[in-house]
TrEMBL record:
Domain Tyrosine--tRNA ligase SYY-like C-terminal per the UniProt entry, residue ranges: 374-434
Organism name: Leucobacter rhizosphaerae
Keyword entries, A-Z: Aminoacyl-tRNA synthetase, ATP-binding, Cytoplasm, Ligase, Nucleotide-binding, Protein biosynthesis, RNA-binding
Quaternary structure and interacting proteins, as annotated: Homodimer.
Name of this chain's protein: Tyrosine--tRNA ligase
Residues binding ATP, per UniProt: 255
HAMAP family recorded: Tyr_tRNA_synth_type1
Length: 441
């Protein structure tokens, strides 16, 4: 399974994207898609988006070696504005990444300069894949270490720090939450909003950048920049805060047992990525199509009808999974994920899957370790398909157990050499839908 799409794939994906011209303005479309939670003056922003090309940016801090789904919301917003003719800057924070924005409960672990520099390179490569690098409004990458590193602490305090009022800074939601916690907040993280404000000012000076986007939980940091530009330059700038994406039940989107859904295929395989989208609830899937795909309003409304009238077909989830997996990992990886998903449940040939696709699928299952000669009934117990050998033997006798979609015929049947596909993996199935994997010892 290809984890990273080719240059040609990326070009075709970007070329196929477009905004929906059924909306009077881009602002109207962004609101319909649920991408605007909070902003500076909405009327002025709507006019700005419909006017001459301007420069805008979003920042991504290298506090991990990959971007995640929350970042993808920002990347797609950047792309929608680029499709309108505006000029995106993708900022990867080589300096702010050394600090990290304040988390709600505790201080971040500070990473080494070498680690942050490596992550900067990785995130820059990811950002550049979602924005066009061609034309008059080609995407440009910037790194805030370029303008913060040369500044001395004294210069920073005199030129930038003097414009910030401590009382205002204390009222920011992220800071206030930490002040009221047992952990408190260090001056390091407290100063983050000054650094982000300085970024906007510097980009305004260098590129005439007039708009910054970010998550609504970053609103205090976003307005630090607009306020600083107003005080220092005497001009206005804008900010858009996108909503934090949550599930219909209010739980945070993109988290599974504390693990983010990463965009790097080495950290979240294309198969696991595809399954995440495929498993979206009916109550959530239409909102996901609006935010994470370039499907038109007409297309999405048709899927909304199908969810209401034929939910068992899960057509909207299949389309969502295909679209977003193709967007992030490319068409070959998306098709590989589909093939693996079908084959696992007996609707395709497991033996035809490449080793990477099969391995990624098996690793998402409960697994047992075994090899040629291992008792299949015992492997079922080890993989938690059943609770005991007796239960395993009864299931086999009833004809409901399969290895690689082939029925197991004898209670004492052992795993054969040929059962280990690619010499490494086998798939156990009990009934129609209960799966487990075997990984060669």
């Amino acid at each position: 399974m290809a984890g990273v799409s080719t240059v040609n794939d990326r070009t075709e994906i970007l070329s196929a994207q477009q905004n929906d011209d059924s909306f009077p303005t881009l602002w109207d479309e962004l609101q319909w898609r649920g991408l605007i939670h909070v902003s500076t003056d909405a009327e002025a922003l709507s006019e700005l988006l419909e006017g001459d090309p301007f420069t805008y940016y979003c920042g991504f801090d290298p506090t991990a070696p990959s971007l995640h789904l929350g970042n993808l919301v920002q990347l797609l917003l950047l792309r929608r504005l680029q499709l309108k003719g505006h000029k995106p800057l993708g900022l990867v924070g080589g300096s702010t990444g050394l600090i990290g924005d304040p988390r709600p409960t505790a201080e971040r672990t500070l990473n080494s300069a070498d680690t942050v520099a490596e992550w900067v390179s990785r995130l820059q490569a990811q950002v550049s894949r979602f924005l066009s690098r061609d034309g008059d409004n080609a995407m440009r990458l910037v790194n805030n270490l370029d303008w913060t590193a040369p500044l001395s602490a004294i210069d920073f305090l005199r030129e930038i720090g003097k414009h910030f009022r401590v009382g205002t800074m204390l009222k920011k939601d992220a800071v206030a939450a930490r002040l009221n916690s047992d952990e408190g907040i260090s001056y390091t993280e407290f100063s983050y909003q000054i650094l982000q404000g300085f970024d906007f000012l510097e980009l305004h000076r260098q590129y005439d950048c007039v708009l910054q986007s970010g998550g609504s939980d970053q609103w205090g940091n976003l307005t630090s920049g607009t306020d600083l530009i107003r005080k220092v330059e005497g001009t206005s700038a804008h900010a858009i805060g996108t909503p934090l994406i949550t599930n219909a039940d209010g739980t945070k989107f993109g988290k599974s047992e504390g693990n983010a859904i990463w965009l790097d295929p080495e950290m979240c395989s294309p198969y696991a990525f595809y399954q995440f989208w495929l498993n979206q609830a009916d109550a959530d899937v239409i909102a996901r199509l609006k935010v994470f795909t370039f499907l038109s309003r007409e297309e999405i409304e048709e899927y909304e009808r199908q969810v209401a009238e034929e939910p068992f077909r899960r057509a909207a989830q299949k389309k969502l999974a295909l679209e977003v997996t193709t967007l992030v990992h490319g068409p070959a990886a998306a098709q590989g994920a589909i093939d693996a998903s079908e084959a696992l449940f007996g609707r395709g040939d497991l033996g035809a899957l490449d080793a990477a696709s099969l391995g990624a699928a098996v690793r998402e299952l409960a697994t047992a370790t075994g090899g040629a000669g291992s008792l299949i009934a015992q492997l079922m117990v080890d993989a938690s398909l059943v609770k005991s050998l007796g239960e395993a033997r009864r299931a086999i006798a009833q004809g409901g157990v399969y290895v690689n979609n082939v029925a197991v015929e004898a209670e004492d049947q052992e795993l054969a050499v040929d059962d280990l596909l690619h010499g490494a993996f086998a798939v156990l199935r009990r009934g129609k839908k209960t799966l487990a994997g075997v990984v060669a010892a």
